[in-house]
Design a protein that fits this description.
322 residues; Dna Ligase, domain 1; D-amino Acid Aminotransferase, Chain A, domain 1; seven-stranded mixed sheet; GSHS_N; ATP_grasp_subdomain_1; GSHS_ATP-bd
Length: 322
């Protein structure tokens, strides 16, 4: 049987109600797959890359059940090499900060010698908030601001209101809405807190149609769900109190999914969460895409079964570089 290693945050930080990782591990174990877990915070970053990859602190996953505290059973810690496994599944949540990049750079040194979801070199090469700009025909106009002057000018150039996002954050953290006449002290206060930013024009459809997540693995759509902001809010993130509902993708959204996956899957970005407001792409999530549980609930199915089917198909066809 194949061997999988899941790299992630500490188990204590998992949110079992909606955690994708727990359900992925449970499905792998149900198929008799050997699954190990590595808490990235326990790795010794004083080691050189080769030594680090050869001595990862891992623990065998004995069971995984989001309804049964402590939700996952782990064997005693031991040391293992990354190349002892056929598949590495990276589930570390953002922010994509210096610590995150340090881990990803080490795994990127494996350079195609085993299947990694998602390929760390490509994760480092892109930004979830900026990827829509690679597909302008399908996307909300997206601007990358590296300096405050550029940021202020971009906010002021939006026709009605600007949505600003910290480039390295997720789950709605730091998102703000600024009208073109926002004062410089207000804009500078946000910039001093978050720095490098992504700016998009506000889309009113977020309050009526919500923020649609389409989850894909390879070229296959696992399902979709829309997140609607809670009353009085315009943040459609579940971590910010949004509700979730069934919502079928439109033909235009499906066209965008086909274009995005055609470009990104061959690069090793296999598991994606594409977000749409109206028919326009707003983000492409690839660090640790979520919403699988919500998709399962609104579509009345178990998408983790399809997810593992596709990962196993990728594993069987993966050709490692020497």
């Amino acid at each position: 049987m194949p061997r999988y290693l899941v790299t992630a945050d500490p188990v204590a930080s998992f949110q079992p109600r909606f955690d994708t990782t727990l359900r992925l591990m449970a499905e792998l174990l149900a198929r008799g797959v050997e699954v190990d877990y590595c808490d990235l915070f326990t790795t010794d970053m004083s080691l050189g890359t080769d030594d680090w990859l050869a001595a990862l602190p891992v623990r065998s996953v004995l069971w995984s059940d989001p309804s049964r505290p402590p939700y996952v059973g782990l064997d005693a810690p031991r040391s293992a090499a990354a190349l002892d496994y056929e598949v590495l599944v990276h589930r570390k949540d953002p922010p994509v900060d210096a610590t995150y990049r340090g881990w990803a750079e080490r795994f990127a040194a494996l350079d195609g010698r085993l299947l990694q979801l998602n390929e760390p070199a490509e994760v480092l090469r892109h930004s979830e908030h900026l990827l829509p700009a690679r597909f302008p025909e399908f996307s909300i106009p997206t601007f990358h601001c590296r300096e405050f002057g550029e940021f202020a000018a971009t906010v002021r150039s939006q026709p009605v209101e600007a949505v600003v996002k910290p480039i390295a954050e997720c789950s709605g953290i730091g998102i703000a809405f600024f009208r073109p006449d926002a004062s410089e002290p207000v804009l500078r206060g946000w910039w001093q807190q978050y720095g490098e930013a992504v700016v998009q024009p506000y889309q009113e459809a977020v309050t009526t149609r919500g923020d649609l997540r389409i989850l894909t693995i390879g070229r296959r759509i696992l399902g979709s769900v829309t997140r609607l902001p809670r009353p009085g809010s315009r943040l459609a993130n579940l971590h910010q109190g949004a509700s979730y509902h069934a919502f079928d993708p439109t033909p235009r959204q499906l066209e965008a999914v086909a274009a995005v996956t055609a470009e990104l899957v061959p690069r090793g970005l296999y598991l994606l969460g594409l977000d749409f407001i109206g028919d326009l792409l707003s983000e492409v999530n690839f660090t640790s895409p979520s919403a699988m549980v919500q998709i399962g609930e609104v579509m009345h199915k178990r998408p983790e079964v399809e997810l593992v089917d596709e990962i196993e198909a990728l594993r069987r066809t993966f050709v490692a570089r020497p």
